[in-house]
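This part of the workshop introduces the protein records we will be handling. An example says more than a description, so a record of this kind follows:
>
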Amino acid sequence: MNYIFLDAETDGLYGPFVSVAMVLTDADGNELEKQYIGLSEPEKHIRTEWVRENVLPIMGEYEKYDDEHSLLEAVWSFWRTHAQNAYIIIDVMHPVESRLMSKCVSSNIEERLFQGPFPMLDISSMLYVIGIDPLKAREELVNPLENGMQHNALYDARTTLAIWKKYILPRLRNK
């Protein structure tokens, strides 16, 4: 089984998608492939001051798409390429990432009705089950990664992967 560690940034929790990162790993958490994509001119789509100040300046380099529909289609394509042998893992999946995949399905509901990712695994729920406060700052759980910072989708997806490798994967191996 492979895993896709997914993170998305939006304009507020319910606004347009600004960027999405998907990191595909093997069962041992070794990165196999990644996709880091976003809107080509995100500042034109952002109304929330917090996102302007905390997300846009740290987006870094990513593959650019002209509109949200094209961005969503790229997410869907990556998912479908790996869907037969992968689960998606997200940190606090609602409302952002669950809505992301829902919008991908809804854009072609007749074809995609039963192709959405299920189960989607939530790392924050897993942390709670093993006795770790799911609201604890992620940089307190794992050493901050060298490149990037929180609210960069690729950084956040890789941080979720680091948490998975430190706290969850060892428990799966010891079953």
About this structure: The beta strands are 2-10, 17-25, 31-39, 63-65, 86-90, 120-122. The chain has one domain: 2-173.
